[in-house]
Amino acid sequence: MIKNYLKKLSFIFFLVVGFSAAAQEVPSPKSHFGFDIGENYQLATYTQTEAYFKKLSTHSKRVKLVDIGKTEEGRSQYMLIVSSPENIQKLERYKEISQQLAHAEITTEQAKSLSQEGKAVVWIDGGLHATETVGAHQLIQTAYEFASKTDPETMKILDNVIILFTHANPDGQELVTSWYMRQKDQSKRTLSGLPRLYEKYAGHDNNRDFFMLNLKETQNIGRQLFIEWLPQIMYNHHQAGPAGTVVAGPPYRDPFNYVFDPTLLTSLDAVGAAMHTRLNVEGKPGYTQRGGSVFSTWYNGGLRTTTYFHNMIGLLTEIVGSPTPSDIPLVPSRLLPNSDSPNPVTPRKWYFKNSIDYSVSLNYAVLNYAQRHRDELLFNIYQMGKNSIDRGKTDTWSFSPKKIEAINNAAKKAGASASAGESEYGQRPAMSNQYFDTVMKLPANRDPRGYIISADQADFNSAIKFLNALIRTGIVVQKATANFSVAGKKYPAGSYVVKTDQAFRPHVLDMFEPQDHPNDFKYEGGAPIPPYDAAGWTLAYLMDVKFDRILENFDGPFERNPYGKLLIPEYKPVSAASYVLSAAQNDSYTTVNDLLKNKVDVYRSAENGDFYVSSTGKSILEKANVKLKATALPKDKTKISLARIALWDTYGGSMASGWMRFIMEQYHYNATVIYPQDIDAGNLKSKYDVIIFVGGAIPGLQPGGFGGRAATPNADEVPAEFKNRLGRITLDQSIPQLKKFLLDGGNILTIGSSTSLAYHLGLPVRNAMVEIVNGQEKRLVNEKYYVPGSVLNVSVDTKSPATWGMEKEADVYFDNSPVFKLTGDAIATNKIKPLMWFESATPLRSGWAWGQAYLQDGVTAFEASVGKGKLLAYGPEIAFRAQTHGTFKLIFNQLYK
């Protein structure tokens, strides 16, 4: 009996040991997916990737799987935390250390101690732009290697670094892989021709949402980056590198944003050198940096770039490669070694596996740098934060191109040489310091100590949305618990304060202050060098937030809001027979839409567009959290109803249309998405009251012009469910149907380039941005006039129902946008009614406007009567990336009847 017992015990022991060993055997990607990562013509879906991540977390004590939130399509977005088993057991402690050092609200001695105790935190993501398939797949391969390898380098990294492997776009990977793999014949597999955007609303623009954080995926990522973990390094994988190279990476070209701590820029140099050097040592040519690519560190709003404003070392690489084999093309100018590209790549065949191998090497380079410089990285993020706090506590003058220009102008005015200090060979005639002092010691030129957002402004709810965007990115906000006064001005309780004596001061300044982009030319008299994305984006301007800049130290009855805690408006209606909701308040429109959908009567004032509702709607008003007043119904009012709204889109998806769809949903409008075939079918007025055309929809005047994408796939290659999306707006079929819609009493709202519909309708307007050359009108060349994405100020006709709720001046997002001149008797005959125009020769508020004087007196928005209907033409991007809350009313006012 004892013998049998021992046999059974022995069997159980070996069973347990065998099971334990199996549990620790980390499954390879091939065992799970059925192919090696990087194999030609093979891609993994997110469903498969999610299952693999779960396996890694089950089979490796080095891996913890975290669900960071749901995506816009309802999938779980996962982050793999990878480190040594000992570190995994103490994650909360290491997270706390990372937070304390990043916030820099401790002493230097405490910071030094924590820097010795803590672990470097490094973020590595993939898949943000889903058609850039290397990103998601290098994430899988790198996670596997760190979950399973035992070589000395890997073990050192695991001991000293906490790695946050984060999937940036689960929905996109599912769509793109399913599309690519649908073809059984591998030679027919392609990433092109996707039927819709690879992020539900934004597509490629999901990488432009990181100071606004509109989207669920960016909110999930933002919380981990700016509230939870605050990594010292973040690495954002993208595609594709410039032709004739393999990969573009750090450091990046000028200009960099002037609000950064200098340690950030030198740290970028250091990490970039480690990445570049590793590839060279491993015999992997083709890395380019600085002027070798277009990427800079000026812009805020990208996944990489927003981290700079939080003292994090943000890395971006753009690599070539696809599951379908490709080629490195011959670009002779890229073959000669230089400081940007010291190890050029020669023309060759290129495979997916090559790109995966390069990406894994780059990940190892970054992580090895982090483990070697662990304590330095931890202390440096503290020191940058402390520097920001110190600058916010004292009188500080930041440099900018305008201030340098002011110094030179002061010298010129005094008769001194403005070029002093710039001569060759070091023989520099001295410029007197007095010219420096006239600008950089002028009290009015100091950086603000803080900003006050008063609770008594017309659209306080939008101000709270602005503050929540700051809070989501880790900014400290304070609330006034009582009335107070600063600099002789009184403010009510409930107002908010954002001070600059905080670690992420660069981000605070960037959201409130104008960007001053330098005049950036290849050579004097040459064409401007386009900025990477926008030149100016001051969010407080775009959202029309009213604030006061406070230059002196100030205090008051302020209560600090906890990190990451969002603000909620608090309004409750008093008992009354009827109420008024201001047309100046964006959330009024949301509330009105809810009232109308619930069959509650709503009226608009014929004077200013304010909304009136009786007490029958009180239950909805109680939930709305919107500012309103008790009042009697006015005599001069009009009962309104919801218009039937159509929104243009195209096969493959328009990002501008996707953002408009997002806005419609956020403000509770029901909009039907229509495609060119729907327009060509006619009978539009029987279905819709208003049609919205965002930029890119309507063809231009040039021969062969069309709206939407330049190419659409062959109909035979498109699944039946998407065939109705094919086609484009054409001059011979679509425009006549749109004209008939207007004549029948429909309204059309056009934005950006789609305002060219006015030309096709023969309206008395023409392009204002032209000059006469040899007796002919020619478009102004970029050497004379160039306004990349920037914030400009316009005058507004506030009496028109189209602009109800707007003020006499507005800040608009302008990206070389259409500007018009009215011709003939356009105004006298009431055919055209200007809505917005440039009254000033210097309308620039934030960004870069070369030759801005040409804009003066140009009309940038108008209303035109066409038959029984109206055409609304808005040149500026009034819905840009769902950030321009200050101009949303220009859209909303058209959506009622």
What portion of residues is helical? Answer: 25-40%
Principal-axes geometry comes out as globular
- In whole angstroms, the N-to-C terminal distance is 92 Å
The low-pLDDT segments are 8-23, 703-710
Mean pLDDT: 94
Strand content: 15-25%
Total strand segments: 37
Main sheet makeup: 10 strands, mixed
Structural class: alpha+beta
Number of helices: 26
CA-based gyration radius: 29 Å
List keywords for this structure.
26 helices; 897 residues; 19% strand; globular; 10-stranded mixed sheet; alpha+beta; 9-stranded mixed sheet
Can you lay out the helices and strands and say which pair or pack?
Blueprint: H1 2-24, H2 29-33, H3 46-59, E1 63-70, E2 76-82, H4 85-89, H5 91-103, H6 108-117, E3 120-126, H7 134-148, H8 152-160, E4 161-167, H9 170-181, H10 216-228, E5 233-238, E6 247-256, H11 262-281, E7 287-290, E8 296-297, H12 305-308, E9 313-319, E10 326-328, E11 348-350, H13 352-372, H14 374-393, H15 401-413, H16 433-440, E12 450-453, H17 460-472, E13 478-480, E14 484-486, E15 489-491, E16 496-499, H18 505-512, H19 539-542, E17 548-550, E18 558-560, E19 578-581, H20 586-597, E20 602-605, E21 611-614, H21 618-624, E22 629-630, E23 637-639, E24 645-648, H22 655-666, E25 671-674, H23 676-680, E26 690-693, H24 734-743, E27 747-751, H25 757-760, E28 765-767, E29 770-773, E30 776-779, E31 790-796, E32 809-814, E33 820-822, E34 832-837, E35 844-846, E36 859-866, E37 869-874, H26 889-892
Parallel strand pairs: 3-4, 3-5, 5-9, 6-7, 6-8, 24-25, 24-26, 26-27, 27-37
Antiparallel strand pairs: 1-2, 2-4, 6-9, 10-11, 12-16, 12-17, 13-16, 13-18, 14-15, 19-21, 19-22, 20-21, 20-23, 28-33, 29-30, 31-32, 31-34, 31-35, 34-36, 36-37
Helix pairs in contact: 3-7, 5-6, 5-14, 6-14, 7-13, 8-13, 11-13, 15-16
